[in-house]
Structure formats: C-alpha cells, structure tokens
Amino acid sequence: MAMRAAPAAATGLFSPPSSVSPRRFSLATPPPSLSAGRCIIHRRRLRAFPSSELPQEELNPSVDLLRKTAEAVGDFRKTPIYIVGTDCTAKRNIGKLLANSIIYRYLCSEELLEDVLGGKDALRAFKESDEKGYLEVETEGLKQLTSMGSLVLCCGDGAVMNSTNLGLLRHGVSIWIDVPLEMAANDMLKSTGTQATKDPDAFSQAMSKLRQQYEELKERYGISDITVSVQNVASQLGYSSVDSVTLEDMVLEIVKQIERLIRTKAMMEAAGKPF
C-alpha cells in the first residue's frame, strides 16, 4: 500500500526550487567561482568516465570552455535542456559540467525521486511494481520543470517512455548522451559493491539487461534534438580509446551542436517555415 501512495508523495518533489531542500540542492545555483565571474582551471583533464560521480562544485569549466560556450550559445539563454540516455556517472557528470559552463541550474529527476522514495532500491522497486505510477510522476515533474528556464535536467528513462513525456521535452532542447554500455554496466556493478573483473558473470548479466533496455529505448532516445556519442567524439578527435575522451570534449561537442541548432532554427524562422 505504501508503494501505491508513492506517486502522490513524489509529485511534491518537483515543486519550484524554493521548496527544494537547501542541503541537497545547494549546488542548484551556479558555483561561487562562476557566479562571481571567476573560474578555476583544473590542472588535470576532466575525464568523461571518472570512477564515481563528481560533486558539481568540482566540475569548474576552464576559461577556454567558458569563452567558447559564451560565443556559441549567445541568445540561447533560458531555454531548458533535457539530457536523456542510459543512466551512468558519465551522463550526470557531463550534465553538471554543461550546466556550470552555461551558468544553468542542474537537477536530476532520478535523484529527486530517490530522495522522496528512500533510495535507489526503493526507486527501482517503484518502477518495477507500478510503471504507470512512475510515468505519471515523471509527467507531472516534466510539466512543472518545463516552465523553468536556465535548467539542465538529467532525465530518467520515464521521460522517453510515452508520447506525453516526449512531447513535454519539446519545450526545450533534448540531448541524447550515447555512452558505451560497458561503462554503464561497470557503474551498475559499483553501485552494488561488485567489480567486473572479479565477477564476470555479474558483468555479463548487467550487460544483458542494459542491452535489452537500450534496444527498447534507442528509437525514443533518437528523437532528441541532439545526439552526442562518446565513440563518435573519440573518433572525431583521433583518440585510440573512449577512455581518452574528457568531460570538456563532450561539453564542447554539445555546445557545437546547440550552436548549429540555433542557426538552423534562425534560418527556418527567416524562411517563414515551422521549426
């Protein structure tokens, strides 16, 4: 019965930012180094696939990234950005750095639900026991969040699982971060304290589950306005491995595609055609 009540309780988590817990979401506003007009240049490269999810305050864009972002994005300000794709630390880290680079708020819909329901396991149980309720919560959340400008929202799979939610993503720019499933599988195992090298069977099972999810959702992911593939970025930059791709490489590719999207929209509007 408690699980049946979860959708109603979860709906409140998508309230305006003023009602969000300051402890949990103190990073929703730009880091002090950015809001004050300063930035920190990391001496090490920001890897796209660190061993764990990084706090947003550690993802300070370089001066070069801030400059290129400002030049490319221009009048894009206040348009919300929705990030979809297989859940993994890389997807979330990229979303955080993107938000910091364009001075946007960052939120993750799955983390909001985890807070309300009591953790990852509770959220997983909710999805499996009441998919309809999960999608209803996702719909309600998207309805409220689409009214917020200057937002990077890292979305769960519920955002692409029905036409209503896909339609709500049209209120902003949707971006599919396409990551190697092996990376997502490693993340899945780490969350349970398992190492792929020590438990190949567990890794194989995780890969099988992710492949099935990917095949079911890839066409819906593909409806996104922008697709950024880690493998493609590695190839374009001449890297021998996806491990060489950095977070800044990924954000720069996203910004380039946003700039291209802005130009295309401007051309369509100038021609008097619907975009």
How would you describe this structure in keywords?
single chain; 275 residues; alpha/beta; five-stranded parallel sheet; 12 helices; globular; disordered N terminus; P-loop_NTPase; Shikimate/glucono_kinase; Shikimate kinase
Provide an overview of this structure:
It is globular and about 55 Å long. Helix 4 crosses helix 12. The protein is built from twelve helices and five strands. 36% of the residues are buried. Strands 2-3-1-4-5 form a five-stranded parallel sheet. It has helices at 2-11, 32-35, 63-73, 89-101, 109-117, 120-129, 131-145, 163-169, 181-190, 200-221, 230-236, 247-270; strands at 81-84, 105-108, 151-154, 173-178, 226-229. With 275 residues, it is of the alpha/beta class. Mean pLDDT is 80; it is low at 1-6 and 16-44. The longest helix is centred in the last third of the chain and has 24 residues, at 247-270. It starts with a helix and ends in a 5-residue tail after the last helix. Its main location: plastid. This is Shikimate kinase. Pfam families: SKI (PF01202). It is found in: Plastid, Chloroplast. InterPro entries: P-loop_NTPase (IPR027417), Shikimate/glucono_kinase (IPR031322).
